[in-house]
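Most newcomers find our protein records easier to grasp once they have seen one. Sequence and backbone structure share a record, each on its own labelled line. To make this concrete, we reproduce a full record directly below:
***
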Amino acid sequence: MGQPAELPPVERQAIERAAAPAREAWEPAVDLVHLSRQTLGDAALETELLTLFDRQAQQFAARLGQPMRPGESRWRADLAHTLKGSALAIGAFGVGRAAQAYEDAARAETADLPLRLARLDAAIGAARRTIAELLDRA
């Protein structure tokens, strides 16, 4: 990855806001009301979607966590975009925001990509812990 161009202060502030951790400390890692709406209250479907997301998030985090080599920013951005869609579908909004911030940084090849990855990894970890607790109860 080449040296990114210096961003104007307004753009840098927008990026920093987008990359910030969850907006509210009380926000659940997975919004169960949203998930229930998405599945029309079908508990078996909820379990299936949570299980699929958990596996996908684990695999994507492992791939994104590998050392970055030149020319990889596009597939990394595409992977984050896919993860964002999956996260938003199940109500993992913190993961969705962090994935969007990572995607934007990867496409722009900004220097703060490692910070964005750390925030995405933390959001994925929180969602996966919540999913594990939910599936243990099922």
The mean pLDDT is 87.
